[in-house]
Amino acid sequence: MSLTSPPFSPAGTAGPARAAEAPAPPRGASPGRRRTRRPRTRADSALTAVGLVGIAGVVATVWLGLWVTPPDEFMGNLVRLLYIHPPLAWVMFLAYGVSFLASLLYLWPRTRSARFDRLAGASAEVGVVFTGLTLVTGSLWGRPTWGQWWTWDPLLTTTALLFVLYLGYLALRRVPGEPEARAKRSAIAALVAFIDVPIVYFSVLWWKSLHQAPSIDLTTRKTYVHGSMAWTLLLGFLSFTVVFAWLVAHRYRLAVLEDREESEGLALALAERRAEAPEAP
Amino acid sequence: MNGYIESGYIVTLGALGVYAASLVGRERSARRRLPAPPARGTAPAEAPEDAPAGDEGSPAPPPGSSGTGA
Amino acid sequence: MWRDAALVAGKDLRVELRAKIGLNQVVPFALVVLVLFGLALGPSDAALRPAAAGLFWVTVLFAAVLAVQRSFAIEASDEARDGLRLSGLDAGGIFLGKAAAVAAQLIVLELVLALVASLLFDTHLSGAGLLVGTCVAATAGLAAVGTIYGAVAMGTRVRETLLPLLFFPLVAPVLLAATKAWKEALAGTPSHGLGWLSVLAVFAVAYLAIGTVAFGPLLEDG
Prior knowledge:
The complex is a heterotrimer of chains A (about 280), B (about 70) and C (about 220). Chain A has about 280 residues and is an all-alpha fold.
């Protein structure tokens, strides 16, 4: 058994040698394994670069948003949430859109590939994170502005529904089953969910607008965004999008590992048990 | 009033940071649990795995090595 | 496809007529929910009468989940699902048939529920045309989504909790639009409710179409 080349540290799980060591160590906590770092691939470096760009952008946005830009003439300092709340909402829609497209590609026979299923799941999970943040920042913005934590604002209400909708989608993904069957039904669920998004938004919009003057509407702020504020807002959109890309890439890689664990997990455990058993005479 | 703004920023950055850290952590522990790339011909999901984004498992397992077993 | 749909719908409805689960369980369940709403918001009519339309439709939503569960529980037993697949029936037809059966049961429920609700919440049922039209359009949408998600969740052990979680957020627009339409009808201004009716129609058509197309792949594996 030779120590082989990257990308994985094979970590010398030699069969017979193990039996001579400590008895049956628990899986995942094997002290006998050599922890050789797997060498960095180009993709790793690219991903790190993306991450750094994202962090830099976000830090710059925060700095500009909190300190450099001036307070708004109407909203005062509250406008500073403008630099993160709309970008978060944008990323949320982007995430679900990516999930939708990936699901479509998965269902289309010619482009069917586990890649797209994993991408759909990864993007949806990151999307849910951003959805939660959109809700929190929206609520934090609403409280000092109108005195209420929640105002049934069309965008916020749509966001709340999307939150639960995609939590359901993620729950569906976690239901055990044959990988292909699971991927197929998840893809259909993603389609069904995404098509609802415009319906939900417009329904809530009309529902709300028929009742009161649309002054309580986060999407039609009477704020003129200009100068440094505009640039900061743009930077906010861009940096959070970059952060989104980094998170999805990592979640995707995790999904690959999880899929492998699933398909190989049993075989691995069996092999380990077999290796630990005393050699048959 | 400013408390709301700062909380907003802190919650956002904090949550994203925690999530990012959890992803990296889960990736590391998953990699620790999985040994060499599949040399056995039994792994069915190999074909779709050659994704661009830093995927694991080089498709050409080095000859003469299986991760476990005699 | 339409013939297969009629076949499947007939089968489902016949099973229901014999088992009478809908009659014995779903309708009483819905009635109890109405009464519970009354207990929670009453006893004075001040809160109940304006809320009547909304409470009615929320109750219908809960009952819809039960109806869909039932619709797929029929298939889960005795390998009926495999039989369905092997029968060579058109997948879209199966979808439409199952959705139609669910819809039929829901319409009957809504009739009973409307009468009871008007009693409990002291509401005069005016604008019958809009009331009925809303019921038809909303029910079509609910049945379509329910059948799609029922198939998605079918065969999973967590079906009972997963289906409501998937279903309710998705049909929120139906709840919204149907309640608004009914409010207009009950308030004597049915013409204002026509916009909401069209929302319901769009929803129903969209999801009936999706279901017809997507049911094939859903049935293939399971």
